[in-house]
């Protein structure tokens, strides 16, 4: 009998459904410990580094999937696609370093899947009236009870060639990052301060990952105070031009004094570390509109380790796709998500000159 699996494509605030479908792939993590080998991963489960539940799912994903198996792609309670593991090929598990930063998650454990795009409409129509999942919750698991309606669709699966996988450049070393920033015009003094701030940031992020969750840290206020302010100050901002909790906004930057609404150039909305940020953009734009910040050119969304930068367009509307992205742990000149963003360009855009240079559009 054909085995059916279900895999979750992130969550509402961090969905990677499109990555799965556009590249005929499924992936999961944590992958930062390297390719799956029980000699490596079983001790991590025993010492609590990886939870028992996720360790079981990871083992199934990497070792138990076979050619001819069916995969249901899920986001929350909604089935997004049906996939087929190619039966004529040995379904090779792979550890792909390109997926080390998917919305800040390390998801390097991968498998190729032929997603059945021709069944998408029927699948969506079907679940408008029926709950297709008897149970849900696990990131990856076997589906033991299949509804008859789904079985009919499984029989319509078709084979085709696989779509190409994405590729991204290797992360920049701090030495290379400093050289790139200096080439872009950042003064030596600020290059040194920023590199030092990144080193401290990475050390702090590791502490939050290892110890912070147990004590519910960091809060949004800590993210601003300990993680974002140090980065902006290192890039040349003065304390006078950075206001914390200004009119209930987490952080605001001004192009000059007085620090009045007409001089606001950046609004920053912070969330706790690890919080999804995809749906926070609307909240930030509401602040800009409510406070009538007509000269605000940029919105920054952050959980401390990841920074998404948005730009106001010439028609005064906001581009909903970020124009910049920076992961302080993995700084690259291109990213899988958001595609086309450059970490070096994002850093330069967060300098006082970078934020204010397009005034008078």
Tell me roughly what share of residues is in helical segments: 25-40%
Number of strands: 16
CATH architecture of the largest domain: Alpha-Beta Complex
Supply the helix-strand structural class: alpha+beta
Proportion of β residues? 15-25%
Ends distance: 63 Å
Describe this structure in words.
The chain contains 11 helices and 16 strands. It is an alpha+beta fold and 361 residues long. Helix 6 runs antiparallel to helix 7 (188-212) and helix 7 runs antiparallel to helix 8. The radius of gyration is 23 Å and the shape is globular. It starts with a strand and ends in a 5-residue tail after the last helix.
Brief overview, please?
This protein folds into two domains: 151 residues, ph1033 like fold (Roll); 183 residues, Alpha-Beta Complex (tt1808, chain A), CATH 3.90.1570.
